[in-house]
């Protein structure tokens, strides 16, 4: 998972946890706030009542009441005020929830009870507000508070996502720069447009590291060129000297035999050096891919080149290319070497009178070229190892150095060709090349 996604998920998860905690804490908190607000309202009402009594006298509440008591409910019975004379010993000052029967209906109220003395008479004042109204107000507050919290969470998650996208943009630029590196020599150090010191340090570190890689790569190329020259030159000189000695008519037979064996050894050494040099140059991208290669022509050229070897072993080669493929930006000589090595192995390790089938056709969006033989096959546990250098899965034959398939694999990777091998011991081996169709 990407760093940006992880940070966004963490931010969202933390906000959701906070939201859940608030959802748990919010209802009792809002209820307490609503009750506190109601109590303050009841106290204000009490002050208003006392103001009226001070201005108009208490008779304004009791004059029209036959039992010298007063009670008044508003039209929806949400609030009430009551006042009546009481015995001084019954004074009760408190605010509490209590039940009242109003017109045959029992209702729950938040009631302020207050005893006071006026003109030698003690009165009990009660001011109440319906708890249903308080709960309705509380529920409304909770609902809108929840909407607000959810909106805040969504908004902050969106803001975090945008901020993280901007904050991590330098990281994406660094990754894209690294992904575009096809070869060390193509890398060019570039400054990073950011003020974040961590990203600047990372970019400078990568630039420094890649410059070291480029320097090491240049030294390796120089070393390969020098070593190949230094090794091939004396080998060629020794071969020429041996050839001159072999031309002498006075050589005894035993010396002649030893010279011939020495010449074979030098030839083998030269072939190994040239193969390793070829692999190294391909891996270092010292070959150009600037040719257009017709696959059908390539297959036919390989078959024509190797037909003499096939005839010597009585191996029949058949080609069936149902569809043709023209490769752009390719190297003909390298592709020829790749296919030649596979077909050559198919002949070398085939049965006397066996066959080789080269088929080409579309496989989905890719073109598949297969080379199947009827040879000795390769054990399943050896298949992952066949492309290693100097790895020979068959018995030593004096000609193979275990570099042919290493070259095949290197050329395939150089051309971004997917290479696959399937084999059944005693029945044969099939090499599959998957080409992207241009």
From TrEMBL:
Keywords: Kinase, Membrane, Phosphoprotein, Transferase, Transmembrane, Transmembrane helix. The keyword Membrane applies. GO terms for molecular function: kinase activity. InterPro entries: HATPase_C_sf, HATPase_dom, His_kinase_dom, HisK_dim/P_dom, HisK_dim/P_sf, Sig_transdc_His_kin-like_C, TCS_sensor_his_kinase. Pfam families: HATPase_c, HisKA. This is histidine kinase. Residues 226-438 form the Histidine kinase domain. The keyword Zinc does not apply. Its EC number is 2.7.13.3. It is found in: Membrane. It comes from Pontibacter aydingkolensis. It catalyses: ATP + protein L-histidine = ADP + protein N-phospho-L-histidine. The chain crosses the membrane at residues 7-30, 144-168.
């Amino acid at each position: 998972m990407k760093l940006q996604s992880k940070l966004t998920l963490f931010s969202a998860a933390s906000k959701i946890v906070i939201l859940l905690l608030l959802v748990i804490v919010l209802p009792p908190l809002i209820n307490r706030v609503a009750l506190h607000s109601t109590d303050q309202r009841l106290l204000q009402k009490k002050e208003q009542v006392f103001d009226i009594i001070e201005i108009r006298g208490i008779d304004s509440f009791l004059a029209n009441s036959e039992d010298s008591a007063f009670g008044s409910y508003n039209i929806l019975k949400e609030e009430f005020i009551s006042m009546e004379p009481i015995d001084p010993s019954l004074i009760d000052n408190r605010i509490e929830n209590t039940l009242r029967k109003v017109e045959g209906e029992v209702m729950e109220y938040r009631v302020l009870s207050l005893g006071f003395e006026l003109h030698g008479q003690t009165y009990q004042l009660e001011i109440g507000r319906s708890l249903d109204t308080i709960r309705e107000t509380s529920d409304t507050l909770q609902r809108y508070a929840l909407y607000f919290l959810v909106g805040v969470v969504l908004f902050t998650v969106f803001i975090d996502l945008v901020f993280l996208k901007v904050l991590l943009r330098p990281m994406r630029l660094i990754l894209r720069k690294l992904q575009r590196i096809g070869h060390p020599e193509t890398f060019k150090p570039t400054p990073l447009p950011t003020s974040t010191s961590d990203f600047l340090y990372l970019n400078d570190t990568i630039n420094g590291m890649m410059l070291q890689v480029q320097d090491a790569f240049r030294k390796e190329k120089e070393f390969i060129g020098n070593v190949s020259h230094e090794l091939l030159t004396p080998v060629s000189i020794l071969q020429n000297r041996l050839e001159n000695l072999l031309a002498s008519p006075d050589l005894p037979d035993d010396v002649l035999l030893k010279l011939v064996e020495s010449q074979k050894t030098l030839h083998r050494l030269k072939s190994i050096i040239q193969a390793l040099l070829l692999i190294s140059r391909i891996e270092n991208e010292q070959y150009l891919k600037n040719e257009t290669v017709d696959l059908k022509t390539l297959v036919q050229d390989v078959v024509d080149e190797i037909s003499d070897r096939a005839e010597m072993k009585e191996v029949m080669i058949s080609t069936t290319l149902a569809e043709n493929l023209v490769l752009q930006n390719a190297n003909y000589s390298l592709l020829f070497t790749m296919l030649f090595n596979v077909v050559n192995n198919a002949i070398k390790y085939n049965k006397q009178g066996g066959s080789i089938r080269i088929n080409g056709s579309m496989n989905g969006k890719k073109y598949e070229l297969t080379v199947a033989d009827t040879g000795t096959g390769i054990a399943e546990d050896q298949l992952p190892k066949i492309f290693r250098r100097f790895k020979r899965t068959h018995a030593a034959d004096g000609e193979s150095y275990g570099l042919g398939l290493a070259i095949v694999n290197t050329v395939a990777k150089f051309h971004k060709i997917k290479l696959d091998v399937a084999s059944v011991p005693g029945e044969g081996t099939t090499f599959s090349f998957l080409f992207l169709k241009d």
